[in-house]
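Per reviewer request, we include the raw input and output of the structure prediction for the construct analysed in the revised manuscript.
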Amino acid sequence: MAFIISADDIKKGLPGYDPEHSDVLHRESARLADKDFEKALKTRQEKKVILMSGGTASGKTEYVSAFLAKKNVIVFDGTLPTLEGAKIKIKKAMKCGKKVEIHGVMPDDLLIAFIAFLNRDRKFPPEHFFRTHSTCRKTLLEIARDMPDLTIRIFFSESIINKQQIDTRFTELTIPNRGALIEYLEQNQYTENELKQMQGLL
């Protein structure tokens, strides 16, 4: 079974947690998740670390549950917002003898993802959606350029409404080489304002 570290799960156990104001404890839960990650690297026997990347409500948690939960890996379920933070995690994992992969999840339809974000129990300001979907793509591109030997896998998430239930399906992007990955990521960069324009908010 995977050892999964999630700031969202940690947040639910913090004193004063209120899903209507989930953003209040975001910084503290992220700090604790980083601390748990460092401890896991030193004490867990799993040989592989998977860092998740993707904006909020992109389907990362569903992907982890469907494809990684039963694997013998350490999973850090986050958005991977900065190159600096990603490199710190990668270097610490490698120093502990772990193999590292990044699995990026991108919603097939950003509008559906935004609607899902607005209807989640955990509430954040809309800016959180646009910021995380912009920064995670920027970080992935920077890692692809700066760390050519690191495995990066991209998965598209598609929400399927079936009998009043929403199922999420995942399709992996076929990438023939590093150059093709970088080209794809370059073509799919968005600023926060561009994402707002896509949702008709600007």
